[in-house]
User: What shape does this take?
Amino acid sequence: MKAKESIYLSKSLFIRGLQCRKSLYLHKFHPELRDEVSEAQEAMFQSGREVGTYARRPFPGGIEVPYEDLSLEEQLNLTGEKIKRGARILYEPAFSYDNVFVKTDILRKARQGWELYEVKGSTGQKEVYLDDIAVQYYVLKGAGIRISKASVVYLNKQYVRNGDIDPSALFVIEDVTQTVDRQRFVADEIADMRKALGKRVPDIDIGKHCTHPYDCDFYGHCWQHIPEYSIFNLDGRGRVKPFDLYRQGIVDLRDAPKEILSKKQNIQLESFLQKNEYVNKVALKQFLDSLWYPLYFLDFETFSCAIPAFSGTRPYQNIPHQYSLHYLKRKGARLGHREFLAEPNIDPREELAGNLVSEIPDNACVLAYHASFEIGVLKDLAASYPRYRKKLQRIVENVRDLEVPFRKKAVYHWKMNGSSSQKYVLPALVPQLSYEGMEIGNGGMAVQAYFRMCESQDQSEIEAIRKALLDYCKLDTLGMVRILERLREMG
Assistant: This one.
């Protein structure tokens, strides 16, 4: 066997290589170019480990082959030893064939052979999971393990926790045996990946593969030639797609061809070229006329868990633990503010719901930004707490979305760079308000801060995090107040 054909691969490297040969090459030979792992990504990895632990419960009595403190060869030897001694269920057993190393989440002995189970933290089946199992099938079969059944194990999105977690109801086990026996495909892909690794860095340009099926961790490196204001920031709802322009050599937003852009895309382009703001006064007036007093500005902070944290919740359900509420009781009234942040390590929903309905009058116009999120949280609360249901439903009926005029391009400022997100709209319209320099500057950071508060035993740290969370959420709703003021000036 030639040296370049025997380059070591693993299951994760195989999946990476399927997505992009260049990503595989950079991972093997230039790992220093990878993007920094964020707190949110670390939390996602931890969540995946938790799901994996729970997925073992329907398969009790198994023996784990750990990867900590063991070399690959030691893991392979330990797996072989356990199988020879008659182990019937193995967690994370290791196998190698054709110099491809894999660890299988769960392997169970059955009458006709072994059953392979691949655990995923999602709530549904995905095409990439079949590739994941296919390479395991290839390696195990090559290593002399007969696979009689192959399944994907994923979270049941309909599962509602009632007391202790019921692992058998928490997961869906989907038999994919008929679709993963693709030995020729796997062997050909492995051979081609090794060819790519034996040459110079593959000449692969950016494309949709940079984010599908997974976000590539070399994104920052490969996209560094794209300017801040580029065709990739064009409104995506036009008939012209950014990658179509990119393949024609058009990258800078200034070079976008006006004649083929949609109306919204042309609004964006002209605003950028003129470095000004666009206002459709008729559309803006229609939006402003839909609001009334008393006017309440609402923002929730939530967290979600793959494994439902509380009774009555589903996998990945948004659990509100905090809100900020600015309000104007009438035109010209003094701006008021209320807020709520739950104590750590409790189910915060009922207390939060009770506080919220006591603070928002039935006749209030409730303004939220990207309101579908707040509406979803309110509906979940209404379903969970009948005593507050009518008042929560009334709030839902009275919610209006402050994002609408920006999403519809009734108002656009060139510094929004194609986005209608509050994180872009606020600094463009109200530059004196900024998240820069704040300890918590976005929703992802807020979630991780809340988790740290729940884990901390240091009261001073808890208080510091609490203050930072309150400051962040308060700025979200104050920002909405100031944005509305600017809209009224424009209208």
